[in-house]
Amino acid sequence: MSDLKLHPNFINGDDFYERLLTAHEGLTKAQSDALNARLIILLANHIGDMDVLDKAITLAKDRRKT
Amino acid sequence: MNKIFERPLYPYFHHPDQDARTPAHHPVVIVGAGPVGLCAAIDLAQRNIPVVVVDDNDKVSFGSRAICFAKRTLEICDRLGVGDRLIDKGVQWNLGKVFFDERKVYEFNLLAEEGHQRPAFINLQQYYVEVYLFERLKKLQDDGAPVDIRGKTKVVDLDQTGDVATVSLETPEGSYQITANWVIACDGANSPTRQMLGLDFVGRVFEDNFLIADVTMEAEFPTERWFWFDPPFNKGQSALLHKQPDGVWRIDLQLGWDVDKEEEKKPENVIPRLKAMLGEDVEFDLEWVSIYTFQCRRMERFLHNRVIFAGDSAHQVSPFGARGANSGIQDVDNLCWKLAEVIQGHAPESLLESYNSERVFAADENILNSTRSTDFITPKSDVSRLFRDAVLELSEHHAFARPLVNSGRLSLPSSYRPSTYFCADVDGLPDKSRPGAPCPDAQLEDGRFLLQTLSAGFNLVTFNLSADRITLDSDTPLDLIAFETAHDKNQTLHERYLGAQKSAIYLIRPDQYIAARWTEFDAKAIKSAISAALGHTA
């Protein structure tokens, strides 16, 4: 069983956040949604581990815990 | 119009049972002469069980209908004596192409692993399959097998009392009754038998319509399966092009939910759609047009006292992945040897409970797979379309995303869960050939294939164990086959049946499923495994 990392795991989180916003700059809502979807599929494949993915989905769904 | 649809295959005739003072009795009545009912009849007839097949029609079913027959089905048909005919007539294909919008995003090769006699799939119109199965059954009948096929004979009532079912039949010459110990209902998704028994058939309805068109054309399309997501000629929907024998092409076009079915079926509406797809200049003739909707559902149980449901009458799936006719034929493959053992008094009636549990499990697997394909092909929400399109976009350049593209998953036989009918497994042998799995085929040194060597009954197959060490005093007839893998050039036998072990011995059921296996000979264990497979409680 692998665990979903919930401690800060970025070396520089601000950098990541900025990149994410920059990627969406100038996009329509539909284009942004499509980019997010591709990003999720890419990252999910990188993780690969179903346990980790399951936990992330559960956490993301339960807004009281996010 | 193709003549095959007009010619009565099993015309009505006046049967002596119609004049009997008390209803004539038969061990087995099969309702429905479609692919599933005919396979059941052949299988039972080959096991010397008398069968009466009744069908309210007297011809093959209209239109091409089921067109993909999977490897396991072909292997079963080999056992039933029609495999070669299906292969000779069928179209074999390996290459699938997936298109998204205006471009091809990727192609896949279906080429299955080496060392199997039969291909992963053939395409063949259902009516040919029905004709070949019928002719095989007729041949058995001509050779003296107790087979009786009654056309234009409709089941109108069914009553079960004790261990006898009374079946009321309606014919062009009036009604009569027969009785049977067992009734196998292979009468399709709208099964009148199921309705007569008042049994539920619940599941999920998909709000979508598909236009199916068979066209004949002299076109340059290769023998491949082409699948389009959101193509320019059918915006927002899907499309499929597939080749059948005789220059017939199957075209499936998703239409959506709010359509006027009768309008859409009219040639003046169908032809422009097809021209948009095939090109304005392509000459074609429309052979068959139909519109279908589908559901994924199954009966809670397939066994109801003396009535056994098989095929679409018991479970229904979406057409994606070709799991309808294929799973129905696998149902009766599972059922018939058991029913024969019960009728011949070699197994308790409770053995049929394993038909229920194993085929319910398989139906759930098929429903799961075909539902997933349907959800991918026809996204039902904005977000599901978003992810679907993201996968398709990524699949063009990234191999990792291609396994997520789901335009129908290859129909594979189920491996059943561990149960009292299978023995506990031993370590070190390959998972693929564990108890509960269908025997993987393998090519032998002499060029033959493993499945060809199996007899119709129980088989005991040894690998690297000299046969003279096998002494077994079994009540059940057992055919012994011995293989040595030392000189096995392609090593597929070793890889599929030995894995990390040096020797093995497999007990194989009459439906070519593995019942038990060991690494050494143990007469007592073998006897108890046969007994367990036959449903005798220890």
User: How many strands of chain B?
Assistant: 23
Query: How many strands in all of chain A?
Result: 0
As a percent range, the share of helical residues of chain A equals 55-70%
Overall outline of chain B: globular
Describe this entry's structure for a reader.
The complex is a heterodimer of chains A (66) and B (538). With 66 residues, chain A is an all-alpha fold. Helix content of chain A is 65%, strand content 0%. The model of chain A has no long low-confidence stretch (mean pLDDT 93). By secondary structure, chain B is of the alpha+beta class. Among the domains of chain B are: 3-88 and 121-202 and 296-368, FAD/NAD(P)-binding domain, CATH 3.50.50.60; 431-533, Glutaredoxin (3-Layer(aba) Sandwich), CATH 3.40.30.120. Helix content of chain B is 28%, strand content 27%. Chain B is built from 13 helices and 23 strands. Chain B has helices at residues 35-46, 71-79, 83-89, 126-142, 192-196, 261-265, 267-278, 325-343, 352-377, 382-397, 450-453, 492-497, 523-533, and strands at 24-31, 51-54, 68-70, 91-92, 95-100, 103-109, 121-123, 147-150, 154-161, 164-171, 174-185, 202-217, 225-229, 238-244, 248-256, 284-298, 303-304, 307-309, 315-316, 458-463, 478-483, 504-508, 514-518. In chain B, the strands form 4 sheets. In chain B, strands 1, 2, 8, 9, 10, 11, 17 and 18 form an 8-stranded mixed beta sheet that branches. An 8-stranded mixed beta sheet of chain B has the order 6-5-13-14-15-12-16-19. In chain B, 46% of the residues are buried.
